[in-house]
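Thread: Newbie trying to understand structure tokens

Hi all, I'm a second-year student working on a class project, and my supervisor (Dr. K.) asked me to get a predicted structure for one chain before our next meeting. I've only ever worked with sequences, so writing a 3D structure as a token string is new to me. If someone could post the tokens and maybe explain what I'm looking at, I'd be very grateful. Here's the chain:
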Amino acid sequence: MIPSNITRDHIVNAIREIEKEGVPKGRESRKFRVVFSGRSYPPKYVVSLANRLANGTGLDPSEFISHEANRFLQRLGFEVTGAPSARQTVRASPISKPVFEETDSRHDERCPECKKTIEVMLKKIYGSVESNYKFGVGTKPEDYATFLSYRTLDEIFSVLQNHRGYKSFTRTLTLPHCDFFIIDPGFIVEFDESQHFTAPRKLSLTHYPDGLKLGFPKQRWIHLCDEIDAKDNDPPFRDEQRAWYDTLRDFLPEIKGLSPTVRLYSKEMRWCKLDPQKSIDVEKFQKFIESRRAGIEGDFIATVILQSNGNASNEDRRRVLLEVVEKVVDVTNSDGIILFPGGYYSAGLREANAIFTSVEKETREKLARIRRNIIVCLGIDGRIGKYATEQMAIAVGKDGVKAIGRKFRAAPQEKGHVDLASDYLSEEQGYPRIFSLNGRHYFLAACYDTFGITKDNLTNPGVDVVLDFVHGFYPPRKRDTSRGDKSMSGDVDFARKGFAGASKQWACPVFGSTVFFNRPIPERWPSGVYWNQGSKSTKRWKYDDNPVKKLRSLSYDIPEGKVLIRIYSVTECLGV
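---
Reply by user tm_fold:
Sure, no problem. This is what the structure looks like when written as tokens:
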């Protein structure tokens, strides 16, 4: 298996080392070659050497096969001759609707049908399920003195005792029942309503050891404790008691040899809307449970859409960017990408490169203060006259620039006015157009580039997601029906032919951000699209055809108008 932390830079440096040292005897390849700067190299040896640069030791050729190396290199944007094209290696099946949906504010989290539906779904998937199951284990730390987790449990118990001074909050000798116990393969499912998210619960969670395997996103649960901050004082120590019992249920897998305890939050979705008689709902629920069991929290993508009066300086945009990053980090609990529009920053008459350093520095410094891996993607325009001669997209993480992409496909009115990249995979200032986050590969498309993906019939280089930096849309022009004029702002056409078209061509989701100048942000305009309409023409594609749904959205006023942030789960969009 090839380690996922090998980057394009490691591959390039490995190739440069081969150019100096040559290829050892026995490491050549007759069938496959990776092409770089007009020369070719043996793919397996390149990957093996790149692993030494990334991880300190060469990768033994017996640990992976040629097709794995070829596919890995293609996903990083390299051409491999003799191998199937990357388009043949990417997923081509349509995704199902995401599990997460915005909950109905009128729906009560204590709805009895929600819990009943979960039980029926679990039985449908796993067969034998016990509800209200008791394990017959003790409630005192000393009951676990012979287990490795004893010291941790004893510490958490003491922390809860000292929180408000309640020394005795366990009133039963054995742990109360668990919500559901799935006998085979053996794991607990807990349904957490709001009263479980308290200050004592946060205390217990923050003392969990890093290596403890959990079937729920710990950081998100901690955030919910801060956000909900429930209080139950009947009896006075009820919050400490509930936090301690929840802690024991989380540690039961180690004590009883079970798989990690899975937790569901009552407001994650309207659970009673799932239909156990519909295979698509059962499949969605199973994927969700299995992703929790595997500890997959899921990366996010946040699209940032602006409503603007057209009067914004780079300093105004800088303040908005920093504020947006804070707001997104505050409501998410995993790694992710924040996507800003094309031309978010302007270099004026100067080259775009003139402000790269300052943009990279302030963004990197902001991200370096965040524990999670957040990547900010934004557009920078330079040499601006009637048109922006330079239209660039840049991705920045806490360690600096991850990728840069120059526009490679001009819009019809821009032809002859824009300096384009030589092709859709060319490097810019030594940086690739493709970057990776947690094993997934993202492609930077500068505005009209998504149209180019379809119009030029481009092959997917092995990317999982396309990120499009759209410059903006203006108020629709009035239609002259006498002349058959069907002109419009372009936002609908962009969603249909740009986003949906590129998604159809590359069989992956497309996310985009933009600016709506002197007009409200259309509520239904999609900033995330995944094609699932088979051979249907994109001309007939409608917003209702789009299966991508946001997890949540935030909207607030800024000096130039308004900002709308939509947050999506990459895991759900890819059907993982």
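A couple of things are worth pointing out once you decode it. Residues 395 and 402 are 5 Å apart (CA to CA). The two ends are 20 Å apart (CA to CA). Feel free to ask follow-ups in this thread.
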